[in-house]
Prior knowledge:
Elements: E1 4-7, H1 9-14, H2 23-32, E2 36-40, H3 42-56, H4 62-73, E3 77-80, H5 90-98, H6 102-114, E4 118-119, H7 123-131
Parallel strand pairs: 1-2, 1-4, 2-3
Amino acid sequence: MAKALVVDCSIVLSWCFPDEGDKISEKTLEIACTKDLVAPSLLNLEFANGLVVAERRKRITRSQFEELITFFDDLFISFVEEEPVGADSQIVKLARAHSLSVYDASYLALAVERKLPLATRDKVLQRAASKCRLPNAQ
């Protein structure tokens, strides 16, 4: 069993919005309490963007925005800087091979490189992780 878990923004945001929660989100949150969380540094921007969009759409208030940023900061996620992206980079290769955005491929590349489970609600990314034979989070 891996002692760390790569998390993507779809999972972390689902912990913030009850209407986005599902069994995968709940199970991952339970698992996250016992494992180290790891993510590309991109997660910082994606998470903040998700909250800004939610605030703009009146899903959350400015006060809730601040509370959710504090929640995010308290998760103790280890952020990993992405490698420079070139035509032959692992991220681009994975994006091409699995029809992913480069952003999503950065999560997959980190999980592949470290041989860690990847927690995501994105079905295409889940299939890619399965094809890459990543370990299960459980």
